[in-house]
Amino acid sequence: MNLLEGIEVYIRVRRLEGAPWTKGAQTLRALCRQIGDVPIERIRLNQVEPFFDGSPTSEGTWYNKYCILRQFFRYWMVRNEIYSLPLPPPRRAPAKVYVPYVYSRDEIRRLLVASRITEQGLNFVIGSSTFRTLLLFLYATGAGISEAVQLERGDVDFRRRRITFHRSLAHLGREIPIGSDIYDILLRYHRTHHQGPMSARQFFLTKNGAQLKPGTASKTFQRVRCRAGIVRCDGERYQPRMRDLRNTFAVHRLTAWIRNHADMGRMIPALSAYMGQHDLAAAERYLRLTPERFRVQLNKLSPKRGKKRWREDAALMAFLEDL
């Protein structure tokens, strides 16, 4: 088997698991372009090493490449296509440079009050009603910024009280139910902003009726955050971001479930599915961000499921269908 064929087979296998796996596919195809479509069993360390060190790369990029190639070669080693891994010794995983921030409910209220500044001056392209609705939408659904700004009017089904997110590079496509509070907020925004002719199909629009850009939303958020007086006091270098509303949604939801003694073995996979994540480990990391006073209950869960796919559990899938 030649390298290119092995890569395409492996990519199909990964995508059958439910993940788009775009970055991994790009990395493997780049390897093939560099060393050529050679027989996979003849690949040697001296051919692969330049792929890691051929151009200046950060420690994080090196480690990500290494993990992708290690998984790929291990896949074919198990299938007896190769008998050793043509890889250099692994380096230590780089330390994460950003610790997600979890907003308190009081800070959420302060952000909503401070969003009024977007009506002041001519250098704000997002109206206060739009920005306030966007903040509440992110906090109430756990959606990513890119998912929110790409949301189209047709994706919000007010009759069925459901929202459809289309698959992106980071998240799975999904349809989620919405509660009565966010339903009323979105319906009021829809009636106010979507009655005349539009130049864009998107749900969230600028003052001029154009599509909202993620960068514009993030820059506006930083100005609102400063007005609200929200800063980190935990020694971390980076200040809270708009995307941290997604972390906040997950942590607040987990906290409420723990208080109510919910079955976390079921609710963590439900949270993973609701947020469009690929596996259980992606949602379980939010457990580490929950308040310390719940540590005893969290330790009893022992949620060490590795990379188990929640779609493989038939009973769980039946439970999610009934939510």
Give the CATH class of the largest domain. Mainly Alpha
If you consult CATH, what is the topology of the largest domain? hpI Integrase, Chain A
* Main sheet: strands, sense, barrel: 3 strands, antiparallel
- The CATH level-2 architecture of the largest domain is identified as Orthogonal Bundle
Percentage of residues assigned to helices: 40-55%
pLDDT below 50 for ≥5 consecutive residues: which ranges? 301-308
* Cα gyration radius (Å): 23 Å
> Quick check: average pLDDT?
83
Quick one: CATH superfamily of the largest domain? Answer: Intergrase catalytic core
Count of individual helical segments: 14
Total number of strands: 3
Shape: elongated
- Number of structural domains: 3
Spatial strand arrangement across the major sheet: 1-2-3
The percentage of residues in β strands lies in: under 5%
Q: H/E order of the elements?
A: HHHHHHHEEEHHHHHHH
Query: What is the straight-line distance between the termini?
Result: 46 Å
